[in-house]
Each structure stands twice: as structure tokens, then as C-alpha cells.
Amino acid sequence: MIFSRHPVSAAMFMIISMVSVAGLFVLLESFFLAILQVLVYAGAVMVLFLFIIMLLDVGPEGSKSSKIKLLSGLAGVVCFGILMVFSLILVLNSYPECSSCAVWPTLDDNNLVLGQSLVFSTSVKSFGFGLFSKYMLPIQVAGFLLLAAMVGVIILSKKFVREGNPS
Amino acid sequence: MTPHYFLFLAFLLFGVGFLGVVIRRNLLIVLMSLELMLNGVNIALVTFSRVGLNLDGSLFVFFIMTVAAAEVAVGLALLVALYKKRQSIFSEDATLLRN
After folding, report:
1. Which member of A29, A75, A145 has the closest CB to residue B66?
2. Which CATH number belongs to the domain containing residue A4 in this structure?
3. What are the pLDDT digits (tens) for B37-57?
4. Is A149's CB within 8 Å of B8's CB?
5. What residues in A contact B89, CB-CB < 8 Å?
6. For chain A, what is the domain count?
7. pTM as predicted
8. Residue A80: inside a domain, yes or no?
9. B34: domain range?
10. I want to staple A10 with a disulfide (CB 3.0 to 4.6 A). Which of A4, A38, B8, B85 is the partner?
11. How many CB atoms lie within 10 A of CB B17?
12. What is the ipTM of this complex?
């Protein structure tokens, strides 16, 4: 995706990767997040991206502007390599090799709360319970953030005409 | 099926997104790579949430999605404003603060 020359094909690869991430969420048994991923990312966000690509009329990049700078390319590849090596070390060392221990604990959909913490469950009910009991303030802040983003976008894309001097 | 695979894929997705942010100069693709990085973090959060049987990680993914949607909207509006001013969406042309 990051190496495709045309922005539209990059967006199409992006949609493929978003839907694949939704499939991974299904494998992890969080179905609500999978649906949300498809709706929000593959639906709304990518439509926004494609709309902006269409609006700006971005064609395939020419030979001059698609050339990757040597220094930034080198820095990116070195950082990527370091990240991959450290993640391999971290991931392979963090779990002891035991085939008998229960890596995926079985789900219990009966109770929503265990002690102080919310219990993972596949049902949407537990999401709603968690969002409106423990995370009441963050969800209000998130709603206000969306409102602020909406107002900001309107202000950014509005064309201001000075009063008395309409030029 | 152990969490290793999911965690390594999360790292890989984050790394690919980071590579895109560093090496690309088209600001649209930089924004898309930012989304990719956020998705890698989401996979790791959901994996730990599933393994630890704790819903907090999944709820945090919910908030990350909200913030990502707002960020994309504002970023694309800024991009359109930049294009109106400079007729270009490449990062080397975004030099409004330089002189």
C-alpha cells in the first residue's frame, strides 16, 4: 500500500487491509469491534479519503515527485528493521513455550463485572454497560471531541467573505 | 493459535505504517499510513483484552476509533486548505512557516 504510485490504488489496498483487520477481530471474538471497524474505517473514513482524492484530482505521481529521498528511505528502513527485530525478541520471549496452558481462556457471558474490572464478552450489552458506567466521562469527552472536529472542519473549509468588501 | 501471531502482526502493521509516514511525501498517503499505525495498535489492544479477559482494552479501541475518525476529518480539511493555497499536496511544498 505504501509503495503504490497511484493514490486510488493505495486507498483500495487500504480498504483490503481494514477488512482484514476486521476479520482478525472476528477471530479474537470481539464481533462488535469487527462491525465497527468495517463501518467506520472501510465505510466512512475511506469514503472520505476517496472523496478528497477525487476532489483534488490527484493523478499518479510523476517521476520527480515520487522519488523517495535516500536519507529518509534509509532512516525508514533502519527504523523498520529495528522495530521488527525488537518485536520478534519481545514476542518470542514474553510467553513461555507451553502447549498445555490455556492461552485463550473460555468466555463467560453471564456476569458483566468481576470484582473491579469489566469482563470480556462477545455481547454488545457488556460494551454498553462498560461505556456508560466506568467510561462515562471519556464518552462525553469523545462526543465533545467529535463536535469540535466538526466545527473545526467547517471553519477550515469555509470561504470567508469580508463584509462590505465582497471580493 | 497463540497471541504471538496477533502481536507480531500488530507490530508489522505498525512498522509498515511508520515506514509509510517516514518515506512518502504525498500527504494523503501519510494520513493513510497513520490510520494503519492506529490499526496495528488496535489489534494489539484487542489481543490483550481477549487473553486477559478484560473489557477495558476493547473499550479503548472504541475510543481510538472515535479519535481516528475526528483526526482524519481535520487532517483532510487541512490538506484541502493547503491545496487551495499551494496547489500541491506534497510535504516538501508545505513550507508556510519557513520564511
Report:
1. A145
2. 1.20.120.1200
3. 999 999 999 999 988 888 899
4. no
5. 56, 58
6. 2
7. 0.85
8. no
9. 26-90
10. A4
11. 24
12. 0.89
pLDDT, position B1 = 63
Mean pLDDT computed over A62-90: 80
DSSP code, position A106: P
**pLDDT reported for residue A32:** 92
Partner-chain residue, chosen from B2, B68, B80, that has the shortest CB–CB distance to A52: B80
- Say whether B53 and A77 touch across the interface (CB within 8 A): no
Distance CA A8, CA B99 (A): 34
Tell whether B51 is covered by a domain. Answer: yes
Residue A149 to residue B74, Cβ atoms within 8 A: yes
Give me the mean pLDDT over the A141-162 stretch: 89
Question: Who wins on pLDDT, B93 or A15?
Answer: A15
Q: Which range among A110-114, A123-127, B24-28, B38-42 has the greatest average pLDDT?
A: B38-42
Flag whether B45 is in a domain: yes
The answer to whether A2 contacts B73, with C-beta atoms less than 8 Å apart, is no
B15 part of a folded domain: no
Least CB–CB distance from B2: residue in A11, A24, A95:
A95
Distance from C-alpha of B4 to C-alpha of A82, rounded to nearest angstrom: 18
Strands (E), B1-99: none
Query: How far apart, in whole angstroms, are the C-alpha atoms of residue A60 and residue A142?
Result: 37
Query: Does the residue A20 lie in any domain?
Result: yes
Range of the domain at A7: 1-60
Contact (CB, 8 A) for B7 and A91: yes
